[in-house]
Write a structure and sequence with these properties.
The protein is 46% helix and 12% strand. The chain is α/β, with parallel strands linked by helices and 312 residues long. Strands 7-6-5-4-3-2-1-8 form an eight-stranded parallel sheet. It is globular. Bound molecules: phosphoenolpyruvate (PEP) and magnesium ion.
Amino acid sequence: TRTKDGAEIQRLANLNLVSELDVALSVKAKGIGLYRTEFPFIVRSTFPTEEEQYLGYRRVLEQMQGRPVVFRTLDIGGDKALSYFPVQHESNPFLGLRALRFSLRNPQIFKQQLRALLRAAHGNPQAKVMFPLVASLDEFQAARDLARICQEELQREGVPNRMPDLGVMIELPSAVVMAPELAAAADFLSIGTNDLIQYLLAVDRTNDEVAAWFAPHHPAVLRSLMRIVEAAEKAGKPVSLCGNLGADPAMLPFLLGIGLRTLSMDSMAIPAVQRRIEQIDYGQARLQARRMLAFGRTDEVADYLKTLEAPR
Ligand code: PEP
Ligand code: MG
């Protein structure tokens, strides 16, 4: 998809289950920017074996026919529980044993998934892997070390494999602050705005009572996004956005204006986003983004966004 003045924007699809691939292909997604691999775990009654995971991942890659697929490792915990893996009661599950923390705490489960991913990546250069809810460089390195151990094991066993690009999801305020170091260490960054907004603004993304406070256009969110993109550019690493924000037509001028070129979203949102991108003048979007970054009040941003609304 190109903007009015010809800047190329990649639109990728988010995927929860393999059965949704047809929809992604029907809207001409250029790849999968976020495959939430926990969903195949959640819909089962027992853990999938390494072999079952490997076959599932390979199937996604085959169906995408050489287009990029970013596998997000398990994001269990928070509001996503496995019926067959009891965990201790937590009074704040979103601040609890979630995502990469869960995987690092359960290395046998994590290693099985990493082995399956490394095997699926063999012969599939377009396969990438990213870790959810990374809070520190230490955590990213621990995850990468485990991937390297898995690779050594597979080599010893004579099992074909390949180390894919490893990325960091930026979903936490700590990761925004550490974005320069994370960008330098990782192969790519992907911004998860659903969690980033939740944790930056301390607003439960699942609680309707506080939905009014879940403000994607809050100046702190806008400035965080800018800092992440700048960090990636400085480190010379690709950065994409895979939260729901990428599917919000009103926010597109800002997202493009700060330099984002790859957006991943629910397949159903792709056609409307494509139409909006085609109306945007990239040069103008840069100026509009700069203007938005200067506002101190959320209201001011909201009022300004109204002036940018697409012509009907
Ligand atoms: C996000 O947090 O923005 C994201 C893409 O991941 P999920 O919605 O699966 O938490
Ligand atoms: Mg998330």
